[in-house]
Each structure stands twice: as C-alpha cells, then as structure tokens.
Write a structure and sequence with these properties.
- With 147 residues, this protein is of the alpha+beta class.
- The chain has a single domain, classed as Nuclear Transport Factor 2, Chain: A (Roll).
- The protein has a six-stranded mixed sheet.
- A hairpin with a 2-residue loop joins strand 5 and strand 6.
- The chain starts with a helix and ends in a 15-residue tail after the last helix.
C-alpha cells in the first residue's frame, strides 16, 4: 500500500504543479482541512481552510499569484494512512516576475483513500523576504548603553 500511496502522491504533486486543480481535489475529502502555517498578512489565501470548496479557492488563488516552475517532493515517508514530504518549490511571482525558491514540509492524513488533512510548514521568514523582494531588518533597536 505504501508504494501505491507514494506513487499517488507524486502524481498529485505533478498535477498541482501543472495546474490540474480538479485532479488534485478529487483526492480530497469534502470535509478536509488545509492548514498552512504562513503569515496571512503576506499570504492571505493561506492559513486554515476547511472543506473542499475553500481548499479549491486557495489553490486557485495560489496559482493566480504564482507560476509553478518546479514543485517536487525531494523526500517522502509513507506509513499506513499518513505521509510526510519535503517539497522543493520554484515559483515565479506573476506580479513582479520574481523567482521564489523554498522548501516546504507537508504532513498528510488519509482516510478511506482520501486526504482529510494537509498541514504545510515553510520557512515563512525566507518566503516573505523573497515575495517582498528585500531583506527584513531584524535588528533590535538599542535601548541605552550596553554594559
């Protein structure tokens, strides 16, 4: 079963990269949750989405914002009805032509062969800097003399 699920996940990642959202959604449960731990101030279409319709809207917005140049799992673990992947993404931001490269971790739960939960983690600090096109100053303002 795990080799079948592994092959299926590779197919889903390829379909997502090429914009075949309906194909990807066919693997989601109607009551699924997509939880992306990303700052919604910069990525307002991410965050927590509940239900296939909300997930579909998120996927469409992501594809409207970015052209997917690469979206490939580089590591995958599958056990029973759970999978964990590390995904290398290379995206072109449509509004700026900026190339964004990042690694994401996905933790996916299945029930009866359908995705019921996908949790996405990324280096959101790096992603924000790339999307904004500049480094974020993290220096703390000095308060008085340092002793």
């Amino acid at each position: 079963m795990s080799e079948e699920m592994r092959a299926r996940l590779y197919d889903l990642y390829t379909a997502y990269r090429t914009g075949r959202i309906d194909f990807v959604l066919s693997s989601y449960d109607n009551d699924a949750e997509l939880i992306s731990y990303a700052p919604i101030e910069v990525f307002p279409y991410l965050g927590r989405q509940h239900g296939k319709a909300a997930i579909a809207e998120t996927m469409k917005k992501v594809h409207a914002e970015f052209e997917f140049l690469a979206y490939q799992p580089i590591f995958m673990v599958v056990e029973d009805d759970n999978a964990g992947t590390i995904v290398m993404a290379r995206l072109r931001q449509r509004s700026t032509d900026r190339i964004i490269q990042l690694l994401m971790a996905h933790f996916i739960r299945f029930r009866d062969g359908r995705i019921i939960e996908l949790r996405e983690f990324m280096d959101s600090f790096d992603a924000v800097q790339q999307v904004l096109g500049h480094e974020i100053d993290t220096a703390m303002p000095r308060r008085g003399p340092v002793r």
